[in-house]
Amino acid sequence: MDANLLSSYIFAVIVLNVLLGLMAYMTYIERKVMAAMQDRIGPNRTGPVGLLQPIADGLKLLVKEDIIPKHADRRIFLLAPLLSFVLAPVAAAVIPFGDSITVFGHEVNLYVADINVAVLYFLAIGSMGVFGIILGGYASANRYSLLGGLRAAAQVISYEIILGLSLIGVIILSGSLSLVEIVNQQSETLTIGPLQLPNWFILSQPLAFIIFLIAAVAETNRAPFDLPEAETELIGGFHTEYSGFRFSFFFLAEYISMIVISLFAATIFLGGTDGPIQDGVWWLALKACIFLFFYIWLRTTVPRFRYDQLMGLAWKVLLPLVLINILLTGFIRLWGLGML
Amino acid sequence: MLESYAAIGMMISTAFFMGGSLLLLGWLIRPSKPSPAKEQPYESGVPDVRPPRGRYTSRFYIVALLFVIFDIEAIFLFPWAVAFDQLALYGYIQVLVFISLLLFGLLYEWKKGALEWA
Q: Per the domain annotation, does A56 fall within a domain?
């Protein structure tokens, strides 16, 4: 194995572990922020200000019995959570966490892979996560699980289209599917009259940004689009029959997808590691945190959609809007280049 | 380029290894006392009499069909967007016709009631 591949691999292992650690504390922060918004205290018994709560939760789930229902399709039932868990963090492979740094006299790139179809790779892996959900729902042999899985599939494929199409405008402007290239273009300065602005794509693609944000919430099955696990109608949805650590794999996958899609949104629309002073991974982290806070805020504020409203929003509102956004972006780009 | 995919492949196998070892650890330390009552599918505390994989609405199939059409559209638009500056006006007009066709198709489905869930 040559040195470049080895350094990429070591970085990949670091990314996987950091994501798992972040995910654990994401659950803690979510509970604390929700508690503050609802005028409660939140977890505060395990360790100082409840900081050991995620570790206690993880340990508890690890020593719980793993119950397999009688009619379940055993092999699929056992493998589905693992599939969800593996695919969620792997999407982060293409996200650039900065330029290269020098460690022990050896140049290390701060991304696992810079492939020329990074955006497509991210969308593909992101939508494959739903396989775990639908297989788990089907294999449980429980009608709530089956319905949850079907709902998840229909929701994810509907919003998958919106998510992909909302990025077309950005790709017209950047002319590349590589995330490294997209970040480099955003670090240029945009001058509008006296104003000096960063060339972040949120400024040139505001409509696409809003549509992407809505689709991203739906894609990760989070409130107010958490129909696949709507407690009031489907018990636990696709994970009704899951217990112990297999249940927690679905949970891990959901939170890791949230973090990864926040990193992706920050990279595509908010300039990634680009910042006003001292570019670096801290800017990416800050921007991703804004998205994650938005997720939690949304969950405490907005009630759950009805299923027909959810599908109506995707096909009747967002799809026409996103197609119009593509045509408008193309028209303005042609005009700007003087090709009309 | 090929090296990047090798790195991704290694990342996927590492994630599998991590997940698998967590499951193995759980398998070693968790209790296992199955009983007929525990293995019943959850049905709000009453015995489940209907077959578990019963019928469900055909709406899900319509959504799947719509998805195939529009996802192919998205896949066609990605290469166009990357080569936008080279294709210029000619490419733009082609995509304009392509998107209008699909938008009319969407309107037709809408009028036919394929997008209604009620």
A: no
